[in-house]
Amino acid sequence: MERNNHEIPAFTVLQPDEAMHVLEEKASKLNVNLQVAHPLDANLLNGLKLALEGEHQYLNAGLAVALCSTWLQRTGHPIINFNQTGPLPEPFIKGLTTASLQGRAQIVPDIESPENLVFYLDGAHSPESMEACARWFSLCTRDDNHLSNLNYQPQQHMDEGSKKDTAQILLFNCMSVRDPQLLLPRLMRTCVCFQKALFVPNISVYHKVGSQALPTVDPQVDLSWQFALQRAWESLMQSDKGGEPRNMDQACEEVKDDTGMSVTSCKNSSVFSSLPSAIKWLRDTAQKDRFVRFQVLVTGSLHLVGDVLRLIKK
Question: Is the keyword ATP-binding assigned to this protein (predicted)?
Fold first, then answer.
């Protein structure tokens, strides 16, 4: 906030009491008119839906409408009263229902196996955003009834015997300054049950994925953070099942990935030496089991999400 004329408002959405107190105190000192923008009423979209998935996006949409309407008023553009109960102006509806933001609640069928491998990408990296991400993923994958959102058309007359099972896989990475004990439990409590969790190095390498295009991996690559994430995940899995935490040395085994590096593979998780190797493993797995649709949640880091988008679109 900057000191300004009281006629120029500042907008926020509903905040926890402590945060709201700070905003109100700051606004009072600077003589700023602080206003709370409420979540957008879906009825104002004239029967359409927000382009960005997730219930929390209605908060963002309400804030966007408040900001845009105020700007239009102050710049002399004629607009209607926004306190009405009817639909929003058509340009507002068009913007809200066609907006796109890569890496946030984004669904991308794999270019090589669109019917067998689907990536769900959301760059959540805080406990609150992780919970919103988990709710979104659970809703999208529930009963596998979201096929219309995938950019392909399934067979119109699929017989009962050809119906695919689904398996959910987590592809996760976060900065070492983040606490996995705050992030991962949100996924486990809110989300579907993951068949496997995959952890990749914090700084992934950009290479085209393919049999002849595997990256050259530094044999000295430091995977200590990925092993820490894996231990946290395995411990949470054991606790969730009501068991006692086990020694990972007894529960896991050393295997070779596609680059020839030794990594630890456990019952519920694996560490890969590079992101391209993890993508190749996912594609190979999907090719081997054609009766399962693998739904991969990519989250924890916007860097990871960006790298995955570059790799799977090649």
Answer: yes
Mean pLDDT, rounded, for 176-183: 92
**Model confidence, pTM:** 0.78
How far apart, in whole angstroms, are the C-alpha atoms of residue 150 and residue 109?
Answer: 6
| CATH code that applies to domain 106-153+160-312 | 3.90.190.20
Q: Spell out the domain ranges in the chain.
A: 9-98, 106-153+160-312
- Residue 178: DSSP 8-state: S
Distance CA 202, CA 194 (A): 21
Q: What angle do CA 214, 219, 225 make, to 5 degrees?
A: 95
Q: Which residues, 6 or more positions from 161, have their beta carbon under 8 angstroms from its beta carbon?
A: none
The dihedral through the CA atoms of 104, 23, 7, 83 has a sign that is: positive
Phi, psi of 48 (to 5 degrees): -95, 180
Distance, CA of 187 to CA of 183 (rounded, Å): 7
CA angle 47, 52, 53 (to 5 degrees): 85
- The top-scoring range by mean pLDDT among 103-112, 203-212, 220-229 is 103-112
